[in-house]
Amino acid sequence: MKILRTVKEIQAYAKAMKAAGKTIGLVPTMGALHEGHLTLMRAAREKCDIVIASVFVNPTQFGPNEDYAAYPRRFEADCEKLATVPVDAVFHPEPAEMYPDGYCTYVNVEGDITKKLCGAQRPGHFRGVATVVTKLMNLSRADEAFFGQKDAQQVVVIRRFVEDLNLNVHINMVPIVREENGLARSSRNQYLSAAEKEAATVLSRSLRRAAATYARGEHDVEKLKLIVTDTLETEPLASIDYVDLFSFPDLQPLQRVEQQSLLAIAVRIGETRLIDNVILGGEAM
Ligand code: AMP
């Protein structure tokens, strides 16, 4: 597995692979890799000749009071996991390599898809994501890029700018990978104490309850949201950031679920903000 640390190195690698006629799959991550990330890597491995993972804690997608400094960095352990897939190359730049002195260009997806859910609570977050993902797609010359449904709004935003900017990359969305107890895998789960980890199972439990009620024929949005809220409120360590339901993938408000829809939540367990979601009404692509 090649370790690429500079813009020049990844550009040379991608150029050589393209010249050899290979298709390239990109899997962007912030590291502290877990089974969710590895599932994306395997999906890329299946579909593409060459898999490039990136491990980069992207400063531009964190707000000033968020966990950029504390975010877990475990590059050696990450490389060991990536080698088991295996991936062909990992891009692991320093922040100054991606944002050198004088850097001042950003990709800003306007419109309401970046203003709701996590966009409402994390101003600038999707601008940072769109900017770094655009750079990573350009650097890797990816034909395919792989993202998790765990961050479903991120997938919506990425598909939007890929279409708007005519980028020639196909976006693949991979289902959420969970622990046996239902907790969605996340690098931020490392922040949780044992008691908080147990409490955090309330997120998936609340979504499962709503999904089961939907499957039994309840399509009223407010009633479905109330099932989630009521369940979350049974857990004393949980405090709700949002519980929302929108059409998917266009994220428009609904009164009734009569089409594919995203039921999404953000919940603080102690100090740790966790997100989870379920897609109602048909399999998402
Ligand atoms: P992150 O390192 O948290 O930025 O995540 C990198 C990619 O992995 C994103 O596309 C995430 O949506 C995806 N991902 C993170 N956790 C999971 C999970 N539990 N299941 C599926 N994909 C995930």
Backbone structural class:
alpha/beta
Helix content: 25-40%
Report Rg. 19 Å
Poorly predicted regions:
none
CATH H level of the largest domain: which superfamily? Answer: HUPs
Shape: globular
How many structural domains in the coordinates? 2
Name the ligand types. adenosine monophosphate
* Helix count from the secondary structure assignment: 10
- For the termini, the CA-CA separation is 30 Å
In CATH, the topology of the largest domain is named Rossmann fold
Whole-number mean pLDDT: 97
The first-level CATH class of the largest domain is given as Alpha Beta
Spatial ordering of strands, largest sheet? 1-4-3-2-5-6
Strand content: 15-25%
Q: Tell how many strands the DSSP assignment holds.
A: 9
Q: What's the order of the H and E elements?
A: EHEHEHEHHHEHEHHHEEE
| Known CATH architecture of the largest domain | 3-Layer(aba) Sandwich
Major β-sheet annotation:
6 strands, parallel
